[in-house]
Amino acid sequence: MNFWKNLSTRRKEVFFFLSMVLFGVLKEFLVYNLPIMAVPKGIHDDWIMVHMADALRGGRWLGEYNDLTLTKGMFFPFYLAVLNFLHLSYLSVSAFLYTVSCMIFVYALRPLLKKYRACLTLYLVLLWNPVSYSVQAFQRVYRNSISYIQVLLIFGGLLALWLRRKEPVKKQLLWLLTAAIGMVTFFYTREDAIWVEPFLIVFVLVYLGNLFVLWRKEHAKVYVAKAVLILLPFLSVWGAGQLIAQENYTHYNISLTNELQKGGFAEMYKSMMAVKPEEDIPGVTMTREKVARMCDECPTLKKLEPYIQSSRIYWAGSEENEKDWEVRDGWVFWIFRTALEQAGYYTDGGTVNQVCLQIRNELETAMDEGRLERQATMPSTYMSPWRKGYLGDLFGALGKAIAYTTTYDEMETLVYLYSEPDDNGGIPLFERMTGDKAVWYESNLVEMAGWYASYEGMDGVTLQAELADGTVLGAADFTESDDIASYLAGQGIAAPGSEKCRFSLKLSVEDKPQTIYLKSYRNGALLDSYELSDDVTRIESDTSCLNLDWYWDVPERHGFLAKINYKGIILNGVCQAYHYTGAIAAAAGAMAYLVLCVRMLKRRLKKVKDADGRDLSVWLTLSALLASYFVLLGGISYSEISGWNAILYWYLSGAYPIMIAFEGLAVLFLVQELRGKAKQ
User: Fold this and answer.
1) Helices of type H across 324-376
2) Of 61, 76, 118, 225, whose CB count within 10 A is highest?
3) Quick one: DSSP state of residue 610?
4) Where are the beta strands (DSSP E) in 55-97?
5) Residue 673 pLDDT
6) Which residues cross the membrane (predicted)?
């Protein structure tokens, strides 16, 4: 203890920072080389994210325009594309960025926490947050893996600005940048980012109000400058939206960022939700009879009816119940998007937008004329209309969500995480875009892809995989590769036929381990022979070049996973510690918050001045975190009772750091206050 007291402030800062780095490196080591969860069959979620990332990486914006293209935010695909361009691991970088976001949040709250011990405590409970290494919110290649990073950047950046509102502008610029990065990336990652908007609105009003009070007292121009600067993160969100909308207009002839939020489809769907169904089916607003009546009253929608029926059958998933199957509100909008695609309207954004607006107008006219009965709808287009009895159900679901999050239910880290391949070989695309490996079900599978070019020409060239004894495992089919031909030409290499030199091979190898060779022939005469392994990426000679984008040996991977199984044991052990103490931590945080509020209120009633503004800052910080947590859980709970099974930790991933921060800060603030009173 004396050692610490004798250290200079500078050395304490260095020691504190290095302590955070040390724990961050430890976590980075534990998540390194974990397998990804690849879901190529999830075309509406995981697959479209990776597909758009691949398109961005190839300079094709978000890829071909169809009913999937503008349904998700584009930032996560952009994030994957950047990592792929830099040849970085998706899992490693995501873990690193979360560690950095925890550091940023802790430094943001330093003016209130003050003590190094308190700061390190908050950092550690945030760092080992189980959602940040769980299978569905970390190992899965989907946008939920960055939500908890973005949330800490938003809250950390804005709370830091509040706590430093009296400091010079130059000391606030980095926090402004932090908030801007968090807000821009968050709002263009998810469509349900609305849950942070109440916090943002209240923050701006309180911040500007406080600056106005200070300006009236001091009449200093610096407060005017700060009032303008605080709007920059919000202007950044608007500016980014304009740029995305312009790119979408350039490529797809529709000027918006997301078709589920704005535009013709959103307007059409809102009008559809406003039509009252005759049947009362829980969780189903678009009943079959309602859709039939809408088609009868709307000529444009009538043209889509055959496609709506076939799309509904697809979502039914089984011929046994498709005649009676009703689609719940959480998925039913896909039926109409698929119908528009099958009807051929997704030629460009302008065409489908016009058709959707025409259907909207016909529906509104039918409701105005009384041919269809109108019902009240919710503010959000995709929320089911309120029904009698929902209030009790909502409170029940909210209680379930609170219990679910505070106990970290269902979370785990999987080392033996098996991904099921689809018929199109989608897993290699996931691996290529992430720089991480998946684990395939087939125990004897070997997969590779890349390109081979003979500089003397590709005429008569064949490429095949063989064992050492000459057994042929498979022959490659060369596919289009204009980009390779352009690349070689740029290197001054004339390679006739290199416009078709890309290949992929999927092999079944019995009795592993065996060495596999890739051999090229010209009209039966051997040209090149390569011994394959995970270390082989590119081999070039004066006459040819082999470039492997990936080489994936499943049997060898299984052996490797056995060696790192201890990582899963450690991480799941930490997760279990959170699971068993979560309810206690939540109760302690709630109790500490109530005690702090009571003590602050007593001081106000006794007219004790809050000279340094600490009481206000503590209350605002905790209240902002708690309110945002409940807003998110409230929205998820409403979805749970009305549309789809929503109480799942990957959908709630952004709530966990907020909840942990609230619990940790409330307890730490109360301890500090009690210690301060004891000293007095």
Assistant:
1) 332-342, 349-368
2) 76
3) -
4) none
5) 86
6) 14-32, 78-108, 120-139, 145-163, 172-189, 195-215, 227-245, 577-596, 616-636, 648-671
Do 271 and 360 form a contact (C-beta atoms < 8 A)? yes
Query: Which residues have C-beta within 8 Å of that of residue 118, sequence separation ≥ 6?
Result: 668, 671, 672
b/e string for 546-568 if b means 16 or more Cβ within 10 A? Answer: bbbebbbbbbebeebbeeeeebb
| 126: three-class secondary structure by DSSP | helix
- Specify the amino acid at residue 341: E
pLDDT digits (tens, 9 = 90+) for 380-438: 777 788 888 888 888 999 999 999 999 999 999 998 887 776 665 678 888 889 999 88
- Which candidate, 67, 52, 382, places its Cα nearest to that of 247? 52
Give the rounded percent of residues in the chain with a pLDDT score beyond 90. 57
Q: How many residues does the chain have?
A: 680
Residue 118: predicted pLDDT: 92
Query: How many Å from the N-terminal Cα to the C-terminal Cα in the chain?
Result: 23
Q: What is the 3-state secondary structure (H, E, C) of 591-609?
A: HHHHHHHHHHHHHHHCCCC
For the entire predicted model, the pTM comes to 0.85
Mean of pLDDT values over 127-149? 95
What residues contact residue 272 under an 8 Å CB cut-off, 6+ apart? 286, 294, 336, 363
Q: Quote the pLDDT of residue 323.
A: 53
272 within 8 A of 293, measured Cβ to Cβ? no
The angle formed by the CA atoms of residues 34, 37 and 38, to the nearest 5 degrees, is 130
CA 428 to CA 442: how far, in whole Å? 14
Please name which of 452, 458, 509 lies closest in space to residue 484, comparing C-alpha atoms: 452
Before 168, cis peptide (omega within 30)?
no
Residue with tokens 């260095």: 14
**Secondary structure element (H or E) that encloses residue 636, with its range:** helix 614-642
Both tokens of 483, joined, read: 């980009």
pLDDT 10s digits, 23-57: 999 999 999 989 999 888 888 888 999 999 999 99
Mean pLDDT over each residue of the chain, to the nearest integer? 89
From the list 300, 145, 157, 302, the residue with the least C-alpha distance to 234 is 157
Confidence class of residue 320 from pLDDT cuts 50, 70 and 90?
Answer: very low
Query: Which residue has tokens 């995709």?
Result: 382
Classify 138 as helix, strand or coil: helix
* Helices 75-85 and 90-108: angle between axes, nearest 10 degrees: 120
pLDDT band at 441 (very low <50, low <70, confident <90, very high): low
**Residue 198 half-sphere exposure, CB side, CA atoms within 13 Å?**
14
C-alpha 76, offset from chain centre: 6
Residue carrying the six token digits 């098996």: 418
